[in-house]
Write a structure and sequence with these properties.
Blueprint lengths: L1 H11 L28 H17 L23 E3 H16 L5 H17 L10 E3 L5 E2 L8 E2 H17 L5 H15 L17 E2 L18 H9 L7 H8 L6 E6 L2 E5 L22 E2 L5 H18 L16 E4 L2 E4 L11 H5 L6 H14 L1 H4 E2 L2 E2 L3 E2 L4 E2 L5 H15 L2 H7 L2 H9 L3 E2 L7
Antiparallel strand pairs: 1-2, 2-3, 4-5, 6-7, 8-15, 9-10, 11-12, 13-14
Protein name: Glucoamylase family protein
Pfam families: Glycoamylase
Keywords: Signal
């Protein structure tokens, strides 16, 4: 089972070990930024959200406005690589920044206009974007030898952000109307049904004009890809049928669980839950509160997954240095060996700040303990110009100097969902999403999607 989990987890994180650098002012090392003493909980959340947002604002690509994959230089992928999914997370972070007035609304409109106009001209395949693009030209940068075309999961992360932006920029003026129009044009052109591979009852992650379906990776649950099925069912021109969800996503050896770990029942997924990003990526916009279908209560799923992760770190069976009630959180990130999908069944002693901090909606008390420890006790090692660096391993005396878009974005967004519900409210207000959820037989006590 552990081998199966490792293979699936590595595939599902998209082999994020690859990297790129900033084209103008590289930031290969952490720039020290002093911490502020004696902050209230609310003030500390402000500081962390705002500093983390700078990754997407100050470090965003100057031409496209999209998010760079990571801050450090690794491998030889050039200076201009931007990431599709991470850009969706960055768009949602920008909406938070506008709402909290860290930037002006005019600045947000200007950046959003730059982003959508760039994306509209960028490479896509049956309406689906590649994992990586050149931030200057919009041309595909291959992610691996045969992954040189459409990436359906990354595109779903991007559209989670774009649909939130469409709902947010609702003013009756030419600029915001233009943003909405371009997003709607791109949204309508996504051929979700193409990715059933000639009408099969499952979605496929990749398609390439050069390699066809050679990547051959069907999306089966449970992992971070729930949002892909929700959006595929929500499509208006090229949707998928409910059977694709029920016969594809919900049919696998690692979908249903039902076992108890540290006193918490886990409805779905791998034993001990797997890496915590499963509770974050699909649920940046999709509100799990009161959200249920025939398979699970998704608040229970995400809460218990998080509690299992927390309790495992407190238990610390492998006796790693630093683990405890104020230092927990296992998920995919950089580590002292490269990159891995860390979890209780794949524990290398690596704590990743985004794991505990993006869990604020689920475990606010535990997350605040971790935040205060990361900021005040470890700040001189992991706090810098874009917030917390990616990960650390105190047993190895290793502290990352890198920042990753897919780890920084959920910190801003999920803390905001805990504080105000902003992004959840925007995404769940989309009429297409409500219809897609209804189509898949979801129910919600928070949003009346079945009426």
């Amino acid at each position: 089972m552990k081998k199966i989990f490792t293979i699936i987890a590595l595939l599902c994180i998209g082999f994020y070990a690859s990297a790129q650098k900033k084209s103008s002012t590289p930031t290969d090392g952490i720039k020290p930024v002093g911490t502020i003493k004696n902050l209230s909980d609310s003030a500390l959340l402000d500081v962390v959200q705002r500093q983390t947002f700078r990754y997407f604002w100050d470090f965003g690509h100057p031409v496209s406005g999209l998010a760079r994959e990571r801050s450090n230089v690794a491998y030889d992928y050039g200076n201009e690589v931007v990431t599709t999914g991470g850009s969706g997370f960055g768009i949602m972070a920008m909406l938070v920044a506008d709402k909290r007035k860290w930037i002006t609304h005019d600045q947000a409109v200007e950046r959003m206009t730059k982003i959508v106009e760039f994306l509209y001209k960028a490479d896509s395949y049956h309406g689906v974007f590649p994992h990586w693009m050149d931030g200057k030209t919009g041309k595909t940068i291959r992610f691996s030898r045969k992954d040189d075309g459409a990436d359906l999961v990354e595109t779903s992360f991007l559209f989670q952000g774009l649909l939130c932006a469409r709902q947010y920029f609702n003013a009756n003026n030419d600029q915001e109307r233009h943003i909405r129009d371009v997003i709607n044009w791109m949204w309508g052109e996504v051929e979700w049904n193409w990715f059933t591979r000639d009408g099969r009852d499952v979605l496929y992650w990749h398609w390439s004009p050069n390699n066809g379906w050679a990547m051959n990776f069907p999306l089966r649950g449970f992992n971070e890809c729930l949002i892909t099925y929700v959006l595929a069912a929500s499509g208006e021109r090229y949707p998928v049928s409910p059977e694709v969800y029920h016969r594809g996503w919900a049919q696998s050896d690692f979908f249903k669980n039902g076992k108890t770990f540290y006193g918490h029942v886990l409805p779905l997924g791998f034993d001990y839950g797997g890496p915590l990003f499963y509770t974050h990526y699909s649920f940046l916009g999709l509100n799990p509160k009161g959200l249920k279908d025939r398979y699970a209560d998704y608040w229970e799923q995400n809460l218990n997954h998080t509690l299992i992760n927390h309790d495992y770190c407190v238990d610390n069976p492998k006796k790693f240095k630093g683990y405890g009630p104020d230092c927990w959180g296992l998920t995919a990130s950089d580590n002292h060996e490269g990159y891995n999908a860390h979890s209780p069944t794949n524990d290398l002693g690596v704590i990743t700040p985004t794991a505990a901090l993006s869990a604020f909606p689920y475990t606010p008390e535990y997350s605040m303990k971790a935040l205060r420890h990361f900021y005040y006790d470890l700040g001189d090692k992991i706090w810098g110009e874009y917030g917390f660096t990616d990960a650390f391993n105190e047993s190895k005396n290793w502290y990352a100097k890198s920042y990753l878009a897919i780890d920084e974005g959920p910190i801003v967004v999920m803390i905001e969902n805990y504080r105000s519900g902003l992004i959840w409210n925007l995404f769940m207000s989309c009429p297409e999403v409500q219809q897609g959820l209804k189509k898949l037989d979801f129910q919600s006590s928070t949003y009346h999607i079945n009426q």
